[in-house]
Amino acid sequence: PESPLSGAILKAELSNPLFNGTVTYVDSVSGLPDMDQRNGEMVDMVPGTHVTIHAPGFRNAFDMALATNGYLYATDNGANGGLGNGSSGPASDSGLASGADEILLVEEGVYYGHPNRNRGRFDAREYTYHDDTAPSIPGEFRQQMAGISSSSNGIAEYRATTFGGQMKGDLLIQRWKGYLRRVVLSGDGRAVTQISNLLPRTDSLGVLTGPGGAIIGLKYQGQQADVMLP
To answer: Of the N and C termini of the chain, which has fewer Cβ atoms inside 10 Å?
Structure first.
């Protein structure tokens, strides 16, 4: 079950001189300490921590990128088809959940569709699962910017002026055991206009950008890094 901080992008207020990053849980009824993850739906977070929910509704956001346009973008792995139902209420399910991986524009307080029944007690939006085809509902749920093939993980912004500046401001998204993708954004940064593969195929998991427009693919399984130079 989901616990008070799971399925979300979190904010840790490190700028607070009294920063407290300790997270502990108590049983919602008895108030007794309970750190057993199997009881995640039945616990409350002890007050006093400076770790809070920035945006809820993520299933498995592997990576984020804070871009120069001021926006925060994330990749999120979609539901594994056939391996579980989607939540439709505090104790009810819809049909089997499935969906593509997603590219998301992360904004504070917006719900992105992956349910958390613990938080649903206080935020009814989070009882309901929305797949990658569901329409956005103003004030309740926001759909992805674009779907992308699984398993899409590492994300970074390309900031170099190489290639005549043609890629500056684009997002780079790494497909595990597949191609690195170039994601072109709209002028306002709120939509995806094009997705294409970059050669050569890197088969990495994470991605970073380096000096001079270099792109670094991180192969955790092979314990190596591939460097792509302009």
So the answer is: C
Distance of CA 83 to the CA centre of its chain: 20
Cβ-based neighbour number of residue 29 at 10 Å:
9
Write the burial class of residue 133 (CB in 10 Å: 0-12 exposed, 13-18 middle, 19+ buried). Answer: exposed
Q: Is 185 helix (H, G, I), strand (E, B) or coil?
A: strand
Give percent of the chain above pLDDT 90. 91
Give me the mean pLDDT over the 142-164 stretch: 96
174 CB-near residues (< 8 Å, 6+ apart): 152, 153, 154, 155, 180, 181, 202, 204, 205, 206, 207, 217
Tokens of 187: 């002028």
**Is 200 a residue whose pLDDT tops 90?**
no
